[in-house]
């Protein structure tokens, strides 16, 4: 996106508080993240919104991160009727039954180890890439994994914020 004010950022800035809150909650389930972004409106550019998102993500507590992660279904099992998680996890859609079964086992092992779903910015990744990532990350310490999750959430939030800004009507 360019550094000039775009129609998308103008629409986002003009949303009533309830509508903006709902749009932000769709992007990220963390109440703290959404509140921080809402309180900093209006944004002069999309880049300013993304920077505010990154800053808010960096400030999230462990509980805030847990709240954000709770809004994400396990890889390979998008929420029924949720086009966002289905679109983002498209790489698993055509996966073999063996890969889906392996991913289910890995998801369960990861969740048992860390107490939350395996979170990765799945957009553009194949099922095999996501499987390999969970296999690699399951060996991380909880502190390492928390920071990787924070980074992955930041990537997801940028993609989702971009989608909000590109919608014709928000």
Compact summary:
This protein is mainly alpha-helical and 170 residues long. 68% of the residues lie in helices and 0% in strands.
Can you describe what's shown?
The protein is mostly helical and 170 residues long. Helix content is 68%, strand content 0%. Helix 2 crosses helix 3, helix 4 runs antiparallel to helix 10 and helix 5 packs across helix 10. The radius of gyration is 17 Å and the shape is globular. The model has no long low-confidence stretch (mean pLDDT 89).
The major β-sheet equals: none
Straight-line distance between termini: 18 Å
Query: What's the Cα radius of gyration?
Result: 17 Å
What are the secondary-structure elements, in order, as H or E?
A: HHHHHHHHHH
Low-confidence stretches: none
Structural class category: mainly alpha
What portion of residues is helical? 55-70%
Q: Which quaternary structure do these chains form?
A: single chain
Number of strands: 0
β-strand percent reads under 5%
Q: SSE layout and pairings?
A:
Layout: H1 7-14, H2 17-27, H3 31-39, H4 46-59, H5 62-70, H6 83-88, H7 90-93, H8 97-114, H9 127-137, H10 142-166
């Amino acid at each position: 996106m360019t550094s000039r004010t775009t129609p998308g950022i103008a629409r986002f800035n003009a949303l009533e508080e309830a509508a903006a809150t709902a749009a932000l909650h769709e992007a990220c389930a963390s109440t703290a993240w959404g509140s921080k972004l809402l309180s900093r409106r209006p944004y002069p550019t999309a880049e300013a919104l993304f920077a505010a998102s990154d800053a808010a993500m960096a400030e999230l507590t462990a509980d805030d991160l847990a709240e954000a992660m709770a809004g994400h279904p396990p890889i390979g099992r998008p929420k029924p009727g949720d086009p966002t998680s289905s679109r983002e996890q498209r790489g698993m859609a055509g996966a073999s039954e063996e890969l889906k079964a392996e991913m289910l086992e890995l998801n369960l092992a990861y969740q048992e180890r860390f107490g939350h779903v395996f979170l990765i910015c799945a957009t553009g990744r194949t099922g095999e890439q996501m499987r390999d990532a969970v296999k690699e990350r399951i060996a991380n310490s909880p502190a390492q994994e928390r920071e990787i999750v924070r980074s992955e959430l930041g990537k997801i939030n940028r993609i989702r914020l971009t989608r909000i800004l590109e919608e014709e009507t928000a």
